[in-house]
Structures are given as structure tokens and as C-alpha cells.
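Lab notes, practical 5.
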Amino acid sequence: MRLDMHRLPNARFDFHPPILGGGEFVAAFDERPEVAAFQAFLASDTWANEKAKVTEGGGWVSANSGLDVENLATDFDKLASSVLGDPSSVIRFDASDLMPGEVGAGTFWTEMVNWIASDKSDQDVLDSIEASWPSS
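Output from the prediction step:
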């Protein structure tokens, strides 16, 4: 796959390159002390390190500053975690998680890859994504 930076809209790389990411957020729906304690645990370096140790095969990273990257399963995960934890990194989320599954995890994802990795036109990519939205 080639990455053609000139095709990215409004791409400026005179700073640290932007990173597209996804993640989990801890939300509470009650103000009980045990809920707050559980939230604090999920935000802790203890949880991040234990989670890293039990995630076999890789695919899990954290930007938690207390994470020992040596606990991560793969070199790629270690690199990803160090980039995510770098204060100069610019991390952005796409909107795919808010889209219906067949769009966000389907055509949006594949067409964005096609747009960057091939010569597929902007309009063809947008048309493919738009056509995949459920009608109701």
C-alpha cells in the first residue's frame, strides 16, 4: 500500500504527523463512590499494565503514561503506544463509530483505504460510501 500524502485534504506535515485512532472511553451513569472508584481503576497504570500483560497476540495499546511498554505483546504495539503517548502527537478520531455498522465498519473503512492506496477518484469514493447508507 502506498500512502500519497498529497491526496490528504488540508494535510500539513510541518508538525508531528497526525494519527487517526480509535479508543474506549469510560463513562459513568451513576454518582456512587464505587462507580468513581472503578473509573479511577480503569484509568490507572495498574489496569493498563495488567491489560497489556494478558492481551496475547497484540492489538491493544494505551497512551497511559504509567504503562510499561515492555508489557505489550508486539513491537508494533510498543511503537503505537509510544506514538500515542508522545505529547507532540496529534490524534484524531474519524466518525465511523457513529455510523451504522455497514457503513462505519464497512464501506467507509474500505473506501477510505481505497482513496489513499489507489487512484480511485474522490467522487467515486464518496459515491460508494453514500450509496451504502441504509434507506431507513
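Observations recorded by the TA: The first strand starts at residue 18 and ends at 21. Helices lie at 33-42, 45-54, 75-84, 101-117, 122-131.
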